[in-house]
Design goal:
78% of the residues lie in helices and 0% in strands. It has helices at residues 5-63, 67-80, 85-97, 101-114, 119-131, 135-148, 153-165, 169-180, 189-199, 203-214, 224-236, 240-251, 258-270, 274-287, 292-300, 306-314.
Length: 315
Amino acid sequence: MIPDQRTLKQCRIFVLVLGLGILSFQIGCSTLTGLRDNSSQLSLGSKTLEARQLTRNGNLNCQTGELRKAELNQREAISKNEYDPWLWERLAHTLKKSGKPLEAIEAMERAVKLSDDDPRLFVELGNLYLDTGEIHKATNQAQLALDQEHRCGSALLLLGRIAIAEQAYTDALHLFQRAAACSPPPAGIRLKIAEAYQLDKKWRLANNTIDNILLDYPVENFPENLVIAKAEGLIEMNQPSAAENFLLERQASENFTPTMVYLLAAAQKRMQSYSDARNTLASGAKAFPNYRAQFLEIRSKIEISAVDERVAQRK
């Protein structure tokens, strides 16, 4: 029997509804599958963020001297995402500060392996090797960094530090100068150039370099290391009067340090102003109680005439 038009229409509607139902079910299953996949990705992303936050907490702990707490935070971060090189790098820095150089090297080696040959991390590892006296390994890391980035200033700086360790001061100077020409230059490179000049006994060039660096600072806030370097240079160039005046300008500031006391007394002694040198050391002993014994011992070895002694006592 041939079905009538009404029956055929009902059949077509049924088939259409059934088809839509199957399609909806398939879409629903795909959506659920997608949600499951996305859920996994969201979970992974959450762990990554948590790991990074733990490491940042560890960095803050490290800055405040809570090294044990810093290490615990950073190791927990790694347990959540062991494939992030940044986490291993930060742990390495904390371990170095904690006096664990071999563990620091192991952590930095892990960071390098995960970093896809990051030149910066090659250099970081090289610096750790150099600090432990492994000069050959340090040199290899610097060369690997330069293979990746020909004008890698930090790698040239590392090679310069290696040259200083080997007492090749002229080579160190050339390497530091090359590093200074990189863009951007490594932090503190001009001071390393001054240091190389000093080690090579080129005191005038060293002081000229230091003077150029000091132009970046207000007079009342000259950094301690630069003040010391300049004063040492002036004394070595047999300009003790200039060294004395330079240090006396610093004496009233909060940045005056025990090393500066010693250099001021040394400059005054070089000028044969023995009573001034003794007074400087006596004042230093009062201002820096932890150095009292040392300053008084040096003072006792500075002999002055009876006339100078009476003048010193009146002061």
